[in-house]
Design goal:
Largest sheet: 4 strands, antiparallel
Number of helices: 4
Number of strands: 8
Distance between the termini: 53 Å
């Protein structure tokens, strides 16, 4: 038996919650190679993939963007729409033609505020998606940087260099 990953909408929300979320959605077709959003841009919408693949990426000065994760059918593209200051922390680009449902973030936030149970369900689903992506990123970092066979469990993250558009969560207190 194959289980639906908890990050996909079918596993993250009940049928009633999915129907409520999907009611204002609009269907979009996006060609391969289309940038959906850039880091630090305004997070005013999000998508759920119907078919195709979207790569989440991170800007690397002087290099191509580093792909963090590839998203497919039933997966949420974009989480920053839910958190102030509604600014993208990553970028996203289609790697194949994509059919998706597109959502107006402000309309969804208003629906969440109007119905606390619905808002809680959406917030919980997005939290599960974020926790999964954080764990997947941690595993990839360990694969890249952990000394194989060393038995060392201590890993020190490299210092983060300032960027032209630092997010409030990454700024140091002054």
């Amino acid at each position: 038996m194959r289980l639906t990953p908890p990050t996909r909408i079918a596993a993250g929300l009940s049928a009633d919650q999915r129907a409520r979320l999907m009611s204002p959605a609009r269907e979009v077709n996006v060609p391969a190679g289309t940038r959906l959003f850039k880091e630090c841009g305004r997070a005013d919408r999000f998508w759920i993939v119907r078919s195709g693949t979207v790569a989440l990426d991170l800007h690397v000065p002087g290099r191509r963007a580093a792909v963090i994760e590839s998203l497919g059918q039933g997966e949420l593209v974009g989480c920053s729409w839910l958190f102030r200051p509604y600014s993208w922390h990553l970028g996203a680009e289609t790697t194949t033609p994509v059919r998706a449902y597109e959502f107006d973030a402000q309309a969804v936030r208003m629906a969440m505020d109007a119905d606390p149970a619905f808002g809680s369900a959406i917030g919980h689903w997005v939290a599960v998606v974020l926790a999964h992506r954080l764990h997947a990123t941690r595993v990839r970092l360990l694969d890249l940087y952990a000394p194989y066979g060393s038995g060392s469990t201590v890993w020190s993250a490299p210092r983060r260099r300032s960027r032209s558009c630092p997010h409030p969560s990454t700024r140091s207190a002054t």
